[in-house]
TrEMBL record:
Organism: Winogradskyella thalassocola
Stored InterPro entries: 6-hairpin_glycosidase_sf, 6hp_glycosidase-like_sf, Glyco_hydro_88, PolySaccharide_Degr_Enz
Native organism taxonomy: Bacteria, Pseudomonadati, Bacteroidota, Flavobacteriia, Flavobacteriales
Residue ranges the record marks as coiled coil: none
Superkingdom of the organism of origin: Bacteria
Protein name per its UniProtKB record: Unsaturated rhamnogalacturonyl hydrolase
MF annotations from Gene Ontology: hydrolase activity
UniProt entry keywords in alphabetical sequence: Hydrolase
Biological process, per Gene Ontology: carbohydrate metabolic process
Any Pfam family: Glyco_hydro_88
Length: 406
């Protein structure tokens, strides 16, 4: 009898345990329901986690890679985490460096000898997690990325080549990829004398973009400049590419507002960066569509095939909003930023039944040169893949929503 009672108790315990395990297994699923009562920044951050449960596969990858796109999205998420303290978001951020960085500080899939400015961007996440954890391997990564910048090939005047395989070329993208990290590294980890040399080098990058890439008539910036004039996409007289690409200019705007977070108040180049930002803002609002958004090729809205594009629009929104919030831009630009954000919600955002937020009409990729060759024509820019939830849009969307407190 005692044996039968014991068996009954054990059986009941087993089934109760199974029920409890099932309940616990259901919890993550419930937690991932994304309420429309949350702010847009948190909704998009949680949506990205649901879309890409593995942060090393952000950007639709099939295997982990050290790249700028996780750096961009995870940096945006870190700003959300600092506001709402959602542990799920922090754990997701930490998982990327935890898996991509060996115990000795080696970066998986990274080669310094490529001298690719895109690889610097994920350094912003190293900076963030190192300040949280003080793990030596993350500091070693930052040292490695700084060492790359110290050896980065340059134009005759000191402008960083975008990549070693793109000699003598400066792209707007490169300033966002490298300079905010470059500035924060100098500020926190170098002596004042050595840091000041880095600040001078950083400001020089912006000076050269202003000198060569800015069009005096429109105030807009050409995507690339080839000092050697050897590229087929480069104008033989100016070395400039042919068009004003929305996201190219978006990268540059974000570089302007973000580098100011770390450039010292007393540095002689700071006032110039703020001047450049004001010129930039004045130019882009002239090309803002009545919807509040911007076209893929900025200055040709009527041309057949051109379309209103989400990644550049999100970047412009963030740049204008942060510029006003930091006091770099006049308050009038906040109206442009709010109009842009509303236009994004109206034209680009859709929400699934489970609350997952989608950002549609994103240009998937665009560049210059390479193989197959990208010639920088209008037809090239409008012909690249258009997709939803490209991280080059979702990251800036999160940051724009935070700046506007939406």
């Amino acid at each position: 009898m005692k044996n039968i009672t014991l068996i009954t108790i054990l059986a009941l315990s087993f089934f109760t345990s199974c029920k409890e395990e099932k309940k616990q297994a259901d919890v993550p699923k419930q937690e991932m329901e994304i309420s429309d009562s949350l702010k847009w920044s948190e909704r998009m951050a949680l949506s990205e986690i649901k879309r890409f449960p593995d942060p090393t596969l952000l950007d639709f990858r099939d295997k982990p890679k050290w790249s700028y796109t996780p750096g961009l999205v995870l940096q945006a998420m870190s700003k959300v985490y600092e506001q709402i303290n959602n542990q799920k978001i922090y754990d997701y951020i930490y998982e990327y460096p935890d898996r991509m960085i060996e115990k000795n500080g080696t970066i998986k899939t990274y080669k310094m000898s490529n001298y690719n400015l895109d690889m610097i961007k994920a350094g912003d996440i190293m900076y963030y997690v190192y300040n949280k954890t003080q793990e030596p391997r993350f500091k070693k990564v930052m040292d490695t990325l700084h060492k790359q910048l110290e050896g980065q090939p340059t134009t005759s005047e000191g402008g960083f080549w975008h990549k070693k395989i793109y000699p003598y070329q400066m792209w707007l993208d490169g300033l966002y990829m490298a300079e905010p990290f470059h500035a924060k590294y100098a500020k926190d980890y170098m002596s004042p004398v050595e840091a000041n040399k880095v600040y001078d080098k950083i400001v020089l990058q912006f000076d050269l973009i202003e000198k060569y890439s800015r069009d005096s008539e429109t105030g807009l910036y050409y995507h690339g400049w080839d000092e050697s004039r050897e590229q087929k996409w480069a104008n033989k007289e100016t070395g400039l590419s042919e068009n004003f690409w929305s996201r190219g200019m978006g990268w540059y705007g974000m570089a302007l507002v973000d580098v100011l977070d770390y450039l010292p108040e007393n540095h002689q180049g700071r006032a110039r960066i703020i001047k450049y930002l004001n010129q930039y803002a004045e130019a882009i609002v002239k090309y803002q569509d009545k919807s509040g958004t911007w076209f893929q090729v900025l200055n040709l809205p009527e041309r057949e095939g051109n379309y209103l594009e989400a990644t550049g629009t999100s970047m412009f929104t963030y740049t204008l909003a942060k510029g006003v919030n930091k006091g770099y831009l006049p308050n009038t630009y906040l109206e442009n930023a709010n109009k842009a954000f509303q236009g994004t919600l109206d034209l680009f955002i859709t929400v699934e039944d489970n609350g997952v937020v989608n950002l549609n009409k994103c240009c998937g990729v665009a560049g210059l040169g390479g193989d197959p060759y990208r010639d920088g024509t209008f037809e090239y820019y409008i012909g690249e893949i258009i997709r939803s939830n490209d991280p080059k849009g979702t990251g800036p969307f999160i940051m724009a929503a935070l700046e506007l407190n939406k």
